[in-house]
Amino acid sequence: MKSRIMPSDKYKNAQVMTSDGKIIGTVKSSDTDSLLIFKNGPLRDEEFHVPITAVSHYDRKSGEIREDDNGISNIKLNLSEEELKHGYE
Predict the structure, then answer these.
(1) How far apart are CA 24 and CA 46, in angstroms?
(2) Rounded CA gap, 74 and 71, in Å?
(3) Per-residue model confidence (pLDDT) at position 3
(4) Does the pLDDT at position 17 exceed 70?
(5) How many Å apart are CA 31 and CA 51, to the nearest integer?
(6) Using CA atoms, how far apart are residues 9 and 37, in angstroms rounded to an integer?
(7) Most buried of 4, 11, 52, 68 (most Cβ within 10 A)?
(8) pLDDT tens-digit map of 59-85
(9) pLDDT mean over 1-5
(10) 25 to each of 3, 13, 18, 32, how far by Cα in Å?
(11) pTM of the model
């Protein structure tokens, strides 16, 4: 079975969306185990360390995150905003 390892920083600046459709920030850095997601907030900035296993939209064949029509990488997680904030903040 092939592993879903993402090369270090390949997805830097990709937008990250939760399973309930909320954009929660951009990838600041990544490694083979997790994504570091950063969000500028009105009162405070937030950072999330999210395991790679939480990525739901990942094209396993080509090893690439799907891009939208503008060429911007978007990553969708299998976590809701609530799950993310309470488990990975």
Answers:
(1) 9
(2) 9
(3) 44
(4) yes
(5) 10
(6) 12
(7) 11
(8) 434 445 555 565 556 788 999 988 887
(9) 45
(10) 26, 9, 10, 19
(11) 0.70
